[in-house]
Amino acid sequence: MAYDLKREDEVKEYIENLGIEYRFGCYKEKKPEVCHLLGDYLEAIKKDFEKAAKVFKSNCLDYNFGKSCLKYGNYALVGRGNIKGSPSEALPYFEKGCELNDPTACLHAGMILTATGPGINVKRDVPKGYNYLKKSCDQKDDMACHYLSGMYLTGVPKNVSDFNPHNPEKNKNIDYLIKPDKKQAFQFALKGCEYGNMYACANVSVMYKKGDGVEKNEEESKKYFTIAQNLQKAHETTKEIKFQQGLEK
């Protein structure tokens, strides 16, 4: 049946039928992809976050659908859908999503395990977190590559309280879980840039300019500075398009 989406009554009918179709595909045909779509439908169209959370959780645990593990992990992290929000609640779902090869789930698991500070109620495990971040970067997640670059740029101290960002000389004498390595930092920044991270491109530009982890090269520095600028402009344009979408008739 063809719907006239300019008519309000037909739009409502279309949306209701879409929900029926997704429920049938999920509950009767037991298709994980359709269950995930049902969760998205409940979230975006019905604004029923509690039901959406249940669908995502079930689809993660029962059908091993990585994207649903990521989605429920996000709910558990921020406390959406009548769930107690905390990193410890979210981490198992991000880890399962990562095992199911969702790169963003790997990113989130890695960031939680390597993070410090207030509100982080998960035991820090930098080696495990590093492996999650590396897997995410290997699957072309630009933010994971950028994050890894930052870890190598400053190093990851064994005791965070020993690290003083304003005293590089003192930092040379502390114990590191990951020692500063500008060559590795450059390589991960380069990967992040190749995958479209404007901050990684900006860092590559600076590293070429200073000769940090790579031989000084003014031309390459200018090249990556331009790439970073172009990515920033593209990002701003995309945001503007999304904001204006539907406003013009």
Automatic annotation (TrEMBL):
Family membership: Belongs to the hcp beta-lactamase family.
Example of a GO cellular component annotation carried by this entry: mitochondrial intermembrane space
Superkingdom to which the source organism belongs: Eukaryota
The protein's name in its UniProt record: Cytochrome c oxidase assembly factor 7 homolog
SUPFAM superfamilies: HCP-like (SSF81901)
TM regions (residue ranges): none
InterPro entries: HcpB-like (IPR040239), Sel1-like (IPR006597), TPR-like_helical_dom_sf (IPR011990)
One Pfam family hit: Sel1
Keywords, comma-separated and alphabetical: Repeat
